[in-house]
Amino acid sequence: MGTTKRCGLFGGTFDPIHCGHLALIAALMQELALDEVVLMPTAQPPHKLKNGMASAEHRLQMCRLAVADMAGVRVSDWELRQGGVSFTADTLAYLTAESPKTQWYLFVGADMFLSIDTWFRFHDIAAAAVLCAVPRGNVSAAALREKAAALEARGARCVVAEMPVVDVSSTELRERIQNGGGADGLLPPAVEAYIMENRLYLDASGAPATDEQITAILQRRLKPKRFAHSLAVAEEAVRLAKRYGADVTKARTAGLLHDIMKNTSPDDQLQVLDNFGVLMSEVERGAEKLYHAMSGAAFAEHVLGITDRDIVNAVRYHTTARAGMSLLEQVLYLADFTSADRDYDDVDVMRRLVDVSAEEAMVYALSYTIKDLVKKKKPIHPDTVAAFNEVTMKGDNEDGNHTR
Ligand code: DGI
Ligand code: FE
Ligand code: FE
After folding, report:
1. Among 3, 250, 257, 281, which residue's CB has the most CB atoms within a 10 Å radius?
2. Spacing, Cα 343 to ligand 2 middle (Å)
3. What average pLDDT does this structure show over 363-371?
């Protein structure tokens, strides 16, 4: 008789699989001297399906990517192929039939372990596998050992793993991604890239983010000063919208959103632009300061589900401006100059001008920006030039003196 193979079975939704799962696998493989671990993504019971969950195919693919270079770990799609939710007893029966000379170790999360004797056909499960309790922060090792003793008294074989608790939550990771945050090293890089490429967990098909949700996201993404600036611009945009007769609600949202990507690294912004298929001109690629308007607009549209074109465009053109700006676009552009937190040299002139008219303020703001860029020997975006030409030519015509 050859020696018996020792195999772990790790089932879960893995939505998504993360570094906590991988650390658990590595620790248990060593602690229990396992030859192999089978990762078994489980089908989702229909009543548990929530918005924004990844499909079985995506979850399976992420598992495969995550363990691609972990020796001795394989992913099985058996449960996903069964149609409907599988019982652990059936899965173990299948695995036992597939490789008879194997001692199976069933990984069971701490909370589940406490009620495992209520699982369907518990006696079959206990006969087929050693039950391996995986500790978690909220359940004490003592409680697990007490439960293990009770189960053993009924003929089950149990191990309470000694591995350190790795508390990473898939739910929290999904929320972070939904909010446009990074995974902070909690996802294997290949899995993170897969999530981005496939736009998982973004759920932009749902209702657009509310101002309250946007504010919460801003607070997480922005440094305190930039967050305060965003609130101040929203307030100023509301004031100007009332004055000029633009949509006040849209002005507030646009003001909140406009700098949402301002504290995101240029590389991450390029990643966002790439993910959402935004093409960039040479001037745009060369000026990192311009990224945040483009990536912010893409983020607002695709991640936050902002469907209003005028709001998205206001964010998109808030830095460069452009010819043919809508009233809302002008409101945001100007509010960014005159918000309460601004204190550049001619801020008083600008504040006076926005109260005179949007046109006069646009002429001044664009001149100021262009002069500033020339002084700093920085390239001027063609949209800025076009905006400047438009507002100054209008002035020429109205003036009468310069018309030929
Ligand atoms: O994001 P904020 O600081 O609130 O303001 P903003 O979005 O207007 O960004 C201002 C920066 O962008 C400032 O450093 C100048 C730069 N900028 C504005 N227009 C252009 C520009 N940079 C280049 N290269 N070309 C432009 O046309
Ligand atoms: Fe900005
Ligand atoms: Fe700004």
Report:
1. 257
2. 15
3. 97
